[in-house]
Hints:
By secondary structure, the protein is α/β, with parallel strands linked by helices.
Amino acid sequence: xxxxxxxxxxxxxxxxxxxxKDLPNLCEEIRQFLIQSxxxxxxxxxxxxGVVELTVALHRxxxxxxxxxLFDVGHQCYTHKLLTGRRAGFSALRQKEGLSGFPNPKESNxxxxxxxxxxxxxxxxxxxxxxxxxxxxxxxxxxxxxxxAFTGGMVYEGMNNVSKLNNLIVILNDNKMSIxxxxxxxxxxxxKLRTDPKYFHAKAHMETVLESIPLVGDALVKGLQxxxxxxxxxxxxxxxxxxxxxxxxGPVDGHDVFMLEQMLNNLREQFAPIFLHVVTQKGKGLKxxxxxxxxxxxxxxxxxxxLTNPELSPKDSFSTTFGSTLAQxxxxxxxxCAITAAMKYGTGLNFFKHAHVDRFxxxxxAEEHAVSFAAxxxxxxxxxxxxxxxxxxxxxxxxxxxxxxxxxxxxLFAVDRAGLVPGDGETHQGIYDTAFFSxxxxxxxxxxxxxxxxxxxxxxxxKERGPRSIRYARGDExxxxxxxxxxxxxxxxxxxxxxxxxxxxxxxxxxxxxxAACDLLQQKGIAADCYKLVRLxxxxxxxxxxxxxxxxxxxxxxxxRTGGIGEQLAFALQQSGWRGTYLLHAxxxxxxxxxxxxxxxxxxxxxxxxxxxxxxxxxxxxHL
Length: 624
């Protein structure tokens, strides 16, 4: 397919050279390009299809990089990347050494800030806008916030601190609400009136004159403002934004590129922070995505001619195994509740919802609330399970410590996407949870296959109490791991060779690599045993005893080194009197990539070849 208009955009600002009449065709080309490209590489689809016209209008009216655009969440930035000359990079989107799926200032000076977690960009934008004021720098700061992010409390913390920033524009990308015809016509009329620069001049001048009247000036201004708020409350319920200091505009059609461009041009001169409410259709241009935007939020490569509904035929994965098992346990335990934060399908909790709708809670993009809410349930004798991706659990660490752990409440944390995660790169790696749970004394379990996940999930729901966690990888189980089955032990020696003086130890998905490394060593005539942990913290009883007679131990984990399980095992062995050589392979979080998992393992020296090579160096040095 050819893209004659899109091909004319090779650098920031090129979109301004197009004739206004060409804009609808440009938007159509962008939409078709995204559908074709993302269906091949994978990536975030629905959210990007919904903001095409809005992004085009912004690039037509702003001067980048002097003006700043921030995205919340950053995955809706694909059109922005196209309009800044990065179309060629989409062939390697989210792949090693390819284009990031999120804004990245290392790629372009038009990318203002790395953003992968929701609800945070408004606070960042306020900081950037305030910095411009302090430094007397020109330019506007525009932040596009999805309606989903407004389920997270940080947005409201930011709105409460806009404090007369007349270089800030907040755009609510509302892809859930529709505009009824009558209210829409009135809103359009008021929008045209209130975006006219004459309106702003008159408003600012009137308030200045009235405030200057001795004794009664402030009271007159306050009276007029109260009167306006009553009118606005009756027409479109915008008083909350106005009371927080915004000039509210909307709702407006987010797919009318002509109107959006005109409106943004009218807002060049502003006297207060602007709150622009834009209504869009998520997944626009791809019918299945329009009908089921959540299903096409983030996709792997897909066949556009054979699209399926993942809810009806879910892919075999740790997430769906967890979700279906928890739904079964809900049949047996009436106190069991399931909580997630805007990721029902991703965590597999759609199964629990269908079976136990009264005990399922999706709290929106509000991880902190999810954990404290679970604490409240547990304090009243219920058994809540909080299922969230590892990267997003980071956002609720205070609540884990203060609201759950201090009182030792019966909350089970189900840590999805644990370990190395493909595609999304540095913003989404699940490498910190082993450290932050274990540092505050919360038990951590890491099943390596479906059978272990089913067994230990049942154990943690039915038998263990207090705060506890279970972590598992993204995707499906690997054949080598499935073949191990489930012993029910907190650790297993899964490979044993005669006269082995070397042991390789790991857990979870990384256990596959130590088994493969043992095979590579065997080919070199070196015998090594393999141990796989299931309970990571507290370390299994007798693990030090089992490892006591080896001369060298290599520990590998797809989590951070500092404070991780490898360091804890090294200390425990030292305390037990072991004096051998200890090699630790863990994640260096100073250079996280967006790549597939095998590439990430190679980059972090966590693949079988790197592990075996380290052992071989040791053997050569020791002349074993």
